[in-house]
């Protein structure tokens, strides 16, 4: 990988991290001022809880993404010769893949083999659920 490609990936990682941090966290507070909370309508309470769960899940996802970006930045700075090499097979990860996912640690074949389901590709049959 060329120095220019590494610099482009480094800049992209920094931009992505800044965007995630600047966007801030999703609000996960109880909506005490809402008609739902004040009326204490048992039918509406699940909506408030669902909103809180969604916001919490998004915050967790954002934190995990920032951690992946931080790990990629660390790898890129500490050992630029090994950045972009698959952690499983050692082959170069295509620059195009890294441009889309600069925190990727595996090439497509290795990632695909990791994600194979026990039932193989395709739809499951109704008999699989017995």
Explain this structure to me?
The structure is a single chain. It is built from 5 helices and no strands. α1 packs antiparallel against α3. It has 130 residues and is mainly alpha-helical. The longest helix is centred in the middle third of the chain and has 34 residues. The model has no long low-confidence stretch (mean pLDDT 81). The protein has one domain: Four Helix Bundle (Hemerythrin (Met), subunit A).
Q: What is the terminal separation in angstroms?
A: 51 Å
CATH topology: Four Helix Bundle (Hemerythrin (Met), subunit A)
The CATH superfamily bears the name DksA, coiled-coil domain
Helix content range: 55-70%
Count of alpha/pi helices: 5
Largest sheet: none
- Provide the domain count: 1
Oligomeric state as shown = single chain
* SS elements, strand count: 0
CATH architecture: Up-down Bundle
Low-confidence region ranges: none
Shape: flat
Strand content: under 5%
Q: Mean of the pLDDT scores?
A: 81
Task: Give, in order, the helices and strands.
Answer: HHHHH
């Amino acid at each position: 990988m060329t120095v220019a490609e590494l610099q482009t990936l480094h800049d992209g990682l920094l931009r992505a991290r800044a965007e995630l941090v600047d966007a801030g966290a999703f609000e996960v507070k109880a909506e005490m001022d809402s008609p739902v909370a004040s009326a204490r309508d048992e039918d509406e309470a699940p909506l408030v809880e669902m909103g809180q769960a969604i916001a919490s899940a998004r915050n967790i996802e954002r934190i995990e993404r920032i951690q992946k970006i931080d790990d990629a930045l660390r790898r890129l700075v500490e050992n630029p010769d090994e950045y972009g090499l698959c952690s499983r097979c050692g082959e170069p990860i295509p620059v195009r893949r890294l441009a889309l996912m600069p925190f990727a640690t595996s090439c497509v074949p290795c990632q695909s083999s990791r994600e194979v389901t026990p039932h193989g590709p395709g739809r499951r049959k109704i008999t699989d659920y017995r």
